């Protein structure tokens, strides 16, 4: 068994097809005269352009616009008059077309690979791909044709270039395996988009596997198993089918309402980190956005974003959700995030310091711009405003007062906004959980942020391996806290959501349903699985399990009970 | 020759897509275009040179156009940079 990087989930079983890159040695090429070499070059460039444009079209249809962009980019590169000019100059100095292509492309490969910017460094592999294919055309050697592999092929190559992947016919390929490339490489992204099992960076795999040999690829574990015996093969075949069934079952839930087993509707939302995540949320058929983190607007730049700039982003997100709710969290920064222009000092205890709503209430210039932008965006969709790290009622009151002041300001300017825009608080500190009843009188909604609530309740840094064992939502202290918050919200008649990772946790979901959580907000990848987990519980079953779990004394006891009932019973 | 000083505002600067759109638009003009950045002169019709210059968000650049349609060329080039090269 060989181990590599698990780049794209799924199990692929098939016959190895070893892709050998064409021999591009041009040391035998003879200089045929300046004019002849130049016309060979321009013919090769024309052929390259025509072929690559055609590949890009295929790619656009098969995989998507974004993946095709790499190929259209290569067409733009080869159409650069400056670069082809350099190649012609090299021919003028007595080099053959192959040497000219090699030298000029080599120059740019060197230039791009030396860059600090990751995005720009990737261009080096584009130029490399362009160079190799141009050389193959000049030398009359055909590049590997992936369009003609038989069904059930496991493609094995040193690396997959953009032009190679464009030729892949999904139906005929069981999996892909490479010797280089990481989780974010072009091959990995493409494999995940095409839902092809993939294991990358397996050392020497092109020489370890035999052409036509039987092979099993587990893209979830990152393993490649050659020549499996009948028993092993049967086991993998069983797992492959189970995975496929699981996937089909989840696909069934696409676009369906989120209902408990006894037909109670709960809201299933998505967490997003920027406008770029809206598509994934909609694709996963989330019913709204339960947490939009706005920090990205403030990071990687030299000055504060303007009100106008923020407004455009919030409006864009609100509008694209087409009537679904968008819970937008105000700036959540602190001394642990490096945003130099905010003037935050390094602190001894950044997690207990000048951060989030504390910062915003002091730097009202920053806060006003954000709140005005949010109010203005509320005219274009269902915007809800959420305050992070609330620990006392005063903070909510100050923010509310500022919001009311800004509403009057907008009235004066005749700018439209939603008069009924909701202002809620994130419950992520023990202080907020303990005064949830007081906060509920004045807040329009709650959202429990489990990541921080666990950290502050258990006084544990989950990044610290020595104490990370304490970081669990199943600790009785955390469970009681969550239950009390949901109860306070229900008593005051305001909705309570949860926007941490815990909302998708199969062990926690029945307890949350029993407590009466109204809204579950999870990552896009977990939406369908969460919908299914919720669908398995009736109120009565969840209540019975919660009653048993909440009298237990330790995290381990709670976990053991839930595991037995949930994993064992299903 | 006409010229204008500008700041690159879009997040990723002149990476592949914006650079491609830019040089394609400039290719329509007869005039020459030079971008001066960090003391270097870059041919504004060459995507390879534009990308290789690595002009990112916040980069202070000067665009110089010279030729028979220099005014129109500069206006379009400056407009593209100011509007964020078609990106956020």
Automatic annotation (TrEMBL), chain A:
| Residues of the active site | 186 (tele-phosphohistidine intermediate), 499 (proton donor)
- Give every PEP-utilising enzyme C-terminal domain span: 248-536
Assigned GO CC terms: cytoplasm
Catalytic activities:
L-histidyl-[protein] + phosphoenolpyruvate = N(pros)-phospho-L-histidyl-[protein] + pyruvate
What are its E.C. numbers?
2.7.3.9
List each copy of the Phosphotransferase system enzyme I N-terminal domain by range. 3-123
Q: Does the keyword Glycoprotein apply?
A: no
Signal sequence span is: none
Kindly list the positions annotated as binding Mg(2+).
428, 452
Q: Which Pfam families match?
A: PEP-utilisers_N, PEP-utilizers, PEP-utilizers_C
Which molecular function term from Gene Ontology is one that the record holds? metal ion binding
Q: Cross-referenced InterPro entries, in alphabetical order?
A: PEP-util_enz_mobile_dom (IPR008279), PEP-utilizing_PTS_enzyme (IPR050499), PEP_util_AS (IPR018274), PEP_util_C (IPR000121), PEP_util_CS (IPR023151), Phosphohistidine_dom_sf (IPR036637), PTS_EI (IPR024692), PTS_EI-like (IPR006318)
Question: What cofactors are annotated for this protein?
Answer: Mg(2+)
Instruction: Locate the residues binding phosphoenolpyruvate.
Output: 293, 329, 451-452, 462
Question: What GO terms describe the biological role, i.e. biological process, of this protein?
Answer: phosphoenolpyruvate-dependent sugar phosphotransferase system
Highest taxon of the source?
Bacteria
Domain PEP-utilising enzyme mobile, first and last residues per copy: 150-222
Q: Which UniProt keywords apply?
A: Cytoplasm, Kinase, Magnesium, Metal-binding, Phosphotransferase system, Sugar transport, Transferase, Transport
How would you classify this enzyme at the top EC level?
transferase
Subcellular location(s) of the protein:
Cytoplasm
Please give the family membership noted in the entry: Belongs to the PEP-utilizing enzyme family.
- Summary of the function given for this chain in its UniProt record: General (non sugar-specific) component of the phosphoenolpyruvate-dependent sugar phosphotransferase system (sugar PTS). This major carbohydrate active-transport system catalyzes the phosphorylation of incoming sugar substrates concomitantly with their translocation across the cell membrane. Enzyme I transfers the phosphoryl group from phosphoenolpyruvate (PEP) to the phosphoryl carrier protein (HPr).
Q: What is this protein called?
A: Phosphoenolpyruvate-protein phosphotransferase
Please tell me the species this chain comes from: Lawsonibacter faecis
Automatic annotation (TrEMBL), chain B:
A single GO BP annotation from the record?
phosphoenolpyruvate-dependent sugar phosphotransferase system
CDD domains reported in the protein's UniProt record:
PTS-HPr_like
Q: Name one GO cellular component term.
A: cytoplasm
What range(s) does the HPr domain occupy?
1-88
Subcellular localization is given as: Cytoplasm
Kindly give the Pfam families that the UniProt entry links to this protein: PTS-HPr
Q: Which UniProt keywords apply?
A: Cytoplasm, Phosphotransferase system
**What InterPro entries does the record tag this protein with?**
HPr, HPr-like, HPr-like_sf
Is the keyword Cytoplasm assigned to this protein?
yes
Query: What protein am I looking at?
Result: HPr family phosphocarrier protein
- Origin organism is Lawsonibacter faecis
């Amino acid at each position: 068994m060989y181990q590599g990087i698990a780049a794209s989930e799924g199990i692929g079983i098939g016959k190895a097809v070893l892709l050998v890159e064409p021999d591009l040695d041009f040391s035998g090429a003879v200089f045929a005269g300046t004019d002849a070499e130049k016309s060979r070059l321009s013919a090769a460039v024309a052929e390259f352009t025509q072929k690559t444009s055609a590949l890009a079209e295929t790619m656009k249809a098969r995989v998507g616009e974004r993946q095709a962009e790499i190929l259209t980019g290569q067409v733009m590169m080869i159409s650069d008059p400056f670069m082809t000019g350099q190649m012609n100059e090299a021919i003028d100095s007595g080099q053959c077309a192959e040497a000219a292509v090699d030298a000029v492309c080599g120059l740019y490969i060197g230039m791009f690979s030396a860059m600090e910017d990751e995005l720009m460094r990737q261009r080096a592999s584009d130029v490399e791909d362009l160079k190799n294919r141009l050389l193959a055309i000049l030398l009359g050697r055909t590049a590997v044709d992936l369009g003609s592999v038989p069904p059930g092929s496991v493609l094995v190559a040193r690396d997959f270039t953009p032009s190679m992947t464009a030729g892949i016919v999904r139906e005929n390929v069981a999996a892909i395996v490479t010797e280089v490339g990481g989780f974010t490489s072009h091959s990995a992204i493409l494999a995940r988009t095409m839902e092809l099992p993939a294991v990358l960076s397996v050392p020497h795999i092109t020489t370890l596997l035999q052409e036509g040999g039987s092979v099993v690829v587990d893209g979830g574990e990152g393993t490649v198993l050659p020549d499996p015996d009948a028993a092993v093969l049967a086991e993998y075949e069983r797992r492959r089918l189970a995975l496929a069934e699981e996937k089909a079952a989840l696909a069934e839930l696409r676009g369906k309402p989120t209902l408990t087993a006894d037909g109670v509707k709960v809201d299933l939302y998505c967490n997003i980190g920027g406008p770029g995540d809206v598509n994934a949320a909609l694709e996963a058929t989330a019913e709204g956005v339960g947490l939009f983190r706005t920090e990205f607007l403030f990071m990687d730049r030299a000055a504060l974003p303007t009100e106008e700039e923020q407004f455009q982003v919030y409006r864009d997100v609100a509008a694209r959700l087409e009537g679904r709710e968008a819970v937008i969290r105000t700036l959540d920064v602190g001394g642990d995030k490096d945003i130099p222009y905010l003037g935050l000092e390094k602190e001894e205890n950044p997690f207990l310091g000048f951060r989030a709503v504390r910062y915003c209430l002091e730097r009202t210039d920053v806060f006003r711009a954000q709140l005005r932008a949010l109010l203005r965006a509320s005219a274009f969709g269902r915007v809800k405003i959420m305050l992070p790290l609330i620990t006392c009622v005063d903070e909510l009151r100050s923010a509310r007062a500022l919001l009311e002041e800004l509403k009057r300001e907008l009235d004066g300017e005749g700018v439209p906004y939603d008069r009924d825009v909701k202002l809620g608080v994130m419950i992520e500190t023990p202080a907020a959980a303990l005064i949830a009843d007081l906060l509920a009188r004045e807040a329009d909604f709650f959202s429990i942020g489990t990541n921080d609530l666990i950290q502050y309740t258990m006084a544990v840094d989950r990044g610290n391996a020595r104490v990370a064992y304490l970081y669990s939502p199943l600790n009785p202290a955390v469970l009681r806290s969550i239950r009390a918050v949901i109860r306070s919200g229900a008593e005051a008649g305001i909705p309570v959501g949860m926007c941490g990772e815990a909302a998708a946790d199969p062990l926690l979901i029945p307890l949350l349903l029993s407590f009466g959580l109204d809204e579950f907000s999870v990552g896009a990848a977990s939406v369908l699985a969460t919908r299914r987990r919720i669908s398995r519980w009736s109120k009565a079953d969840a209540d019975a399990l919660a009653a048993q779990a909440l009298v237990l004394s330790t995290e381990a006891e709670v976990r053991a009970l839930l595991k037995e009932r949930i994993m064992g019973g299903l | 020759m006409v010229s204008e000083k500008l700041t690159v505002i879009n997040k990723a600067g002149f990476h592949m897509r914006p650079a491609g759109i830019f040089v394609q638009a400039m290719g329509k003009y007869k005039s020459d275009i030079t971008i001066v950045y960090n003391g270097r002169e870059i041919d504004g019709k060459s995507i390879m040179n534009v990308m290789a210059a690595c002009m990112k968000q916040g980069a202070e650049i000067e665009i110089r156009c010279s030729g028979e349609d220099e005014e129109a060329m500069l206006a379009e080039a400056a407009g593209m940079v100011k509007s964020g090269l078609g990106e956020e």
